[in-house]
Automatic annotation (TrEMBL):
UniProt name for this protein: RING-type E3 ubiquitin transferase
Coiled-coil residues: none
Source species: Oryza punctata (Red rice)
Similarity comment: family membership: Belongs to the SINA (Seven in absentia) family.
Entry GO terms, CC: cytoplasm
Length: 199
């Protein structure tokens, strides 16, 4: 007789509470990700620690096997992004959490006004800049020319993909203006110089 209970139902999901340290390597404390190894009595270790130590940190045994059962568990452990409350709806496997969050576009950014403690996603910040501070702002599309009033001070730019930039203009006599442009998501500063003629 063949038992049906051996079949796996990938859609069967339930929220459970577990001690997350079970999903971390006991040596490096990084989340387990395949390949995961176990010693002959079943202590788990990540592959990079296993390569470094060559013996089990729990019992000093030196023979290891790959543990597919544990790999299935870590591959099905799905967690929300830390920026879920800022709008990220991604569900990520626990071992991908750190790399996702480092690149997540919902990471809140802070208002550049030193007297203001507002933080939020790019779209919340844009609304905040334009309604709360009423800072000069322009929306633009990449690779499409657009006009910006050249005057000293900060000017906020929003690209078609929601990315925010702060442009800061300083007069540079006699040629025009020095302009710095700060990419608020990637924290990169560009500096360039504008020259113009007054007609
Ligand atoms: Zn490890
Ligand atoms: Zn062991
Ligand atoms: Zn995210
Ligand atoms: Zn503010």
């Amino acid at each position: 007789m063949v038992s049906k209970s051996m079949g796996h139902n990938a859609d069967k999901k339930q929220v459970v509470t577990i001690g997350m340290d079970v999903l971390d390597c006991p040596v490096c404390f990084e989340p387990f990700k395949p390949p995961i190894l176990q010693c002959s009595v079943g202590h788990f270790i990540c592959s990079s620690c296993c390569n470094k130590l060559n013996k089990c940190p729990g019992c000093s045994r030196t023979s290891f096997e790959r543990c597919f059962g544990m790999e299935r568990i870590v591959e099905s452990a799905v967690v929300p992004c830390i920026y879920a409350e800022h709008g990220c709806t991604n569900k990520i496997t626990y071992f991908n959490k750190k790399s996702h969050e480092q690149a997540c576009s919902y990471e809140p950014c802070f208002c550049p006004d030193s007297g203001c403690s507002f933080s939020g996603s790019m779209s919340m910040l844009w609304k905040h800049f334009t309604t709360k501070h009423m800072w000069p702002s322009t929306e633009f599309k990449y690779y499409t020319p657009f006009d910006v009033r050249v005057e000293p001070g900060a000017h906020f730019l929003r690209a078609g993909d929601g990315q925010l930039f702060v442009m800061n203009m300083v007069p540079v006599e006699p040629v025009g203006h020095g302009v710095s442009c700060y990419d608020m998501l990637n924290h990169v500063l560009f500096i360039f110089q504008l020259s113009y003629f007054i007609l």
